[in-house]
Amino acid sequence: MKKQIEIDGNSLSLQQLEEVALNKTEVSISQPAQQSINKCRDYVEKLVNDQKVVYGLTTGFGKFATVTIPNDKIEELQENLILSHATGLGKSYSIAETRAVTLLRCNVLAKGNSGIRLSTLQTLVDMLNAGIHPCIPEQGSVGASGDLAPLSHLALVLLGEGYAEYKGEIMTGKEAMDRAGIKPVRLAAKEGLALNNGTQVMTAVAALTLNKALKLCKVADICAAISVDALLGTPKAYHPLVHSVRPHQGQINAAKNLTNLLSNSPLRESHLNCDSVQDPYSLRCTPQVHGAVRDSLAHVKRVLEVEINSATDNPLIFPDADEVISGGNFHGEPIAFVADMLSYTTAELGSISERRIEQICNPALNRGLNAFLAPRPGLDSGYMIAQVTAASLVSENKTKSFPASVDSVPTSANQEDHVSMGTIGANKSRDIIENVNSILAIELLMALQALESREHPSSPVIEAIRKEFRKEVPVLDKDRNINPDMLKAKEFIASDRILEIAKEFLDLE
Predict the structure, then answer these.
(1) What is the pLDDT of residues 441-481, one digit of tens each?
(2) Which of 181, 325, 416, 432 could serve as 144's disulfide partner, Cβ 3.0–4.6 Å?
(3) What pTM did the predictor assign?
(4) Which residues does the annotation mark as catalytic?
(5) pLDDT tens digit string along 233-260?
(6) What is the distance between the alpha carbons of residues 308 and 10, in angstroms, rounded to a whole number?
(7) Are 4-198 and 206-313+329-503 in the same CATH fold?
(8) Domain extents in the chain
(9) CATH architecture, range 206-313+329-503
(10) CB of 139 within 8 A of CB of 88?
(11) CB-based burial of residue 358 (10 Å sphere; 0-12 exposed, 13-18 middle, 19+ buried)?
(12) Residue 164 pairs with which residues in a beta bridge?
């Protein structure tokens, strides 16, 4: 029997989100959640039958909230909402991101405060399990009533409209649904709002980015340790006594990782009595920088864990309290803040890495290595321009680290007069993480090359990494096109191979 993840709107984890997004694990709706959904739907239908005036059920939306809609037009109202709000532009989100968005939308609806029919939600779950991935443009959300435009593109395919990826092809939503044998939905009262009101796009992108960032913190420690040994640095600054008197947990963990990674290094032992007593900040202060990133990401994680199990549409329906409340849970500010934090903190992993790259390149700083690690200085340029690439990526990250959440452009005739721009922030964080992966790949490539010039081997774990890496990238013995080497180094990190090798020797914090 295939593994399934049950959703109930309350207990989804970030790990389960990743399993569905990346591994295509199937999803089902728990029995208690089905009961809550049906109970809420019965209450909605009673309100409509009693001809109550309720925002989004029997009225227009936004500035049209004062316009009452007759009962025979309510279905058209909900469909029009999706059709008119699907205004996104730009490239589409990746399949993994789209799956994460779809899962989060399903999970919110399973919470039982949205008023959707169980059959409608089940169709959305069926689409996810069948591998129908709506084409959701990245641009068009201001993160105010949540992600209105992108979520509307998700809902379009549910209606047999729009476009989707299915089995490697882009086709119309109708064709994708037909091929998968899934009948499109005709929306009923409240269902349009239930589908396109919320923060699931910004949250999904931020959550997948966070998972990558947490791994890159460990990769950054590994790359830093290799650079420290290659540069004949000292791990003395990583001593537990130093960090016990400034006990930030992330700093303590990073220092412990660096100490363990460098333990039993013959190269370190070979220069114990040298006259160098202090390393530059990019080596000596690595625990303080990498640790601060870790602690920031821990806060990001706490916020996202709350958000993925939160009701964020509007209005929210509480059958037991006999209340339909138009509130503001759709506002993306909590996610906007942590998306910006995710951006500027992880950018620092790349920034300090580039400074270590400079240490390795610079003959005035690299303690006896050739300039730019050129095998034949003058005839060969070595890694001269690889450092330039790293510098370019660091600068690009700086421009993308400006917080999107400090901006607000009023929309909807000033009804939505303060918006979060959270989706822009989440998109930027993803781009920054991609650049950091590239910067660390360049550091890894160069630090391992630097080790080749030393007379003594490094620690057992670092030597194991070097051995495995050399299966993909040979030593640079003369100038060649190193772009393929850089790409292989990047894949070596992105595929988690470097972490898997390290795990054979120690548990990284």
Answers:
(1) 999 999 999 999 999 999 999 999 999 999 999 999 999 99
(2) 416
(3) 0.94
(4) 55
(5) 999 999 999 999 999 999 999 999 999 9
(6) 8
(7) no
(8) 4-198, 206-313+329-503
(9) Up-down Bundle (1.20)
(10) yes
(11) middle
(12) 134, 171
